[in-house]
From TrEMBL, chains A, B:
The name this protein goes by in its record: LacI family transcriptional regulator
CDD domains on file: HTH_LacI, PBP1_LacI_sugar_binding-like
Entry-linked Pfam families: LacI, Peripla_BP_3
Keyword flag Endoplasmic reticulum: no
Keyword list, A-Z: DNA-binding, Transcription, Transcription regulation
Length: 338, 338
DNA sequence: CTGTTAGCGCGTTCAG
DNA sequence: CTGAACGCGCTAACAG
């Protein structure tokens, strides 16, 4: 009724029952009789009581909240990962905070700092492309709270990682192009400072070597994942006359290159094949014959959050798990704890 | 160093300065000498102190956090809105919580409930398609905290709404098709229980009437925004032989219809024109000749958050604002306060 | 099964 | 400019 929220004391006074009993009743403690519990719940509803999570969290030092930190939610892959995370989290009674780093280290640092201030119970993160040291994340770990890395692997020991087998996926993708008869395959790669792109490049090279195809450095484009880079690369490709295949290890650049090809009326399916990692609906639209290695985003999200909850509840039995999903491989890499 | 976080008391003891002074220094109060301020800040950094927002919020009853509630973050339009919101919010020193209702009322209710528990300072919401009453939101308003509606208008009085002029945009879209020579224009609409789709349908009808084109009920498809609906509608359209135009007031159904046309080898640009509301990159890829009325998503986000901050800071001078952006119209509809 | 007491970490009085 | 004391709302620990 009033502008101020009802507290347990309001309902305590209204009923002549001590506030601690009210608190217990509201938490459905077995140590309160059904009768008084009923009275309390009724009064609570009547007064429009809603628990003050801040006070509760302050007391218990548990926020029932976990955070996902990732480059951008607009990428289809990440949106799917979030869906998977929310599904498991909500079932487990946790709230999820979503944070975008925009692949910017400074932003990521700030995010982690406010997550520390807000005392979230755990963090799942796909690190920014600029992240090469992990001090900000270690500050969080020092609080004895867990971090799970997904998609982009953490290069530190003692980290839990959830991702597909990037080497194998890359190998498969390249092999697929070779099997279709490609001999001159361009590779869109990312910065070699990042383990993820080293792994993917390695898979590409391994497949070529296995098929006795010469590795040509001019065919490998290192870039960040912007649309501009995709267009720039596309232009270069059109100048390399004999290209018959393209394997891109990132979807953003691949899609923008495809757009460029279209605008230049290059007939894509006959001339160039593209293999990307995500099942973004845009890739299905851009060219139906496009070949794609999908990452099982939903499963990655579920897996990552489940591992996080295991950590939060100190079920430390996390060991190396590994299994296949669809066309790609989901790996949980885990080195011993503390 | 320790597993436990440093508090202001730790730094208070370490320095022999009272914790209240430490608190003031950390909040950059002018009532602390620069000298002691310096000492305190240094020690704070040394101990790895990070403010406990929970305690701070509990004390001040301000969380410095606002929430965005919307159907799904994966829709390009919403992702852009979020970008706009985050930009303004971070500048203003606020954190942003993103929540997906998945167009499900029960979920929306639960979200609002936990936002109340977490005492966020304000909410911006694009209501779910199932939302026809606003009790859950009124519970929040009773705490004297502001709500701003965007995209999907709230049908209650005394609400702040940020959206384009849907009637006009619809009118323009339909007029555009008519100007291109279309006489038999199909309209994809949403549930007429929702004001948004009523407005859009009204704009379509108004344009036809102005051009003396007969309104044909068979040309109007009411559906929710699923992909399945798009395909279902596409099939029906192919049966209506003389259709020469399609005006869709939602992008999801339009895009999936376009996909279907493509798969059936119907040559889209000559046979059917599509007009949608969003600047989703997917629509640019699906068919370059596609005509689109864009919603200025980024601006909507900025506008909505700015209005929210005005409310939070009790600058109640919000009056009717109205201006044009790009091809569409951005309206803030606002009826008098309290 | 219920009441009493104390304190989570911080900010804000009110004194000096 | 700084210190002492209190309380935000809730729950854990200890009584009874």
């Amino acid at each position: 009724m009033n502008k101020n929220k009802a507290t347990i004391h309001d309902i305590s006074k209204a009923l002549g029952i001590d506030s601690s009993t009210v608190s217990r009743a509201l938490n459905d403690s077995p140590r309160v009789s059904k009768k008084t519990k009923g009275k309390i719940l009724k009064k609570a509803k009547e007064l429009g009581y809603q628990r003050n999570s801040l006070a509760s969290s302050l007391r218990t030092s548990k926020t029932q909240t976990i955070a996902v930190v990732l480059p951008r939610i607009s990428r289809h892959f990440f949106a799917r990962v979030i869906a998977g995370i929310e599904e498991t989290a909500h079932k487990a009674g946790y709230n999820v905070i979503i944070c975008q780093s925009l692949d910017n280290l400074e932003r990521e640092k700030k995010i982690i700092s406010t997550l520390i201030s807000n005392r979230v119970d755990g963090i799942m993160i796909s690190i920014s492309m600029e992240t090469t040291n992990y001090e900000h994340l270690e500050a969080y770990k020092k609080l004895d709270k867990p971090i799970v890395f997904f998609d982009r692997p953490c290069e530190l020991p003692n980290c839990i990682n959830v991702n597909i087998d990037n080497f194998q996926a890359s190998f498969d993708a390249t092999q697929h192009l070779i099997s279709r008869g490609c001999k001159h395959i361009v590779h869109f790669s990312g910065s070699q400072k990042i383990e993820l792109y080293r792994q993917r490049k390695a898979g590409y090279i391994a497949a070529l070597e296995k098929n006795n195809i010469k590795i040509n450095d001019h065919y490998i484009f290192e870039s960040n994942l912007s649309e501009e880079d995709g267009i720039r690369a596309a232009k270069k490709i059109l100048r390399l006359k004999n290209i018959d295949g393209l394997y891109s290890s990132n979807d953003t650049a691949a899609i923008s290159a495809m757009k460029y090809f279209k605008s230049k009326r290059v007939r894509v399916p006959e001339d160039i094949a593209v293999v990307g990692f995500n099942n973004d609906p845009i890739s299905a639209v851009i060219e139906p014959s496009l070949t794609t290695i999908n990452q099982p985003a939903l499963e990655i999200g579920k897996m990552a959050s489940n591992l996080l909850f295991e950590q939060i509840n100190n079920k430390t039995k996390t060991t190396k798990i590994q299994f296949r999903l669809l066309n790609s491989e989901l790996i949980i890499r885990h080195s011993s704890k503390k």
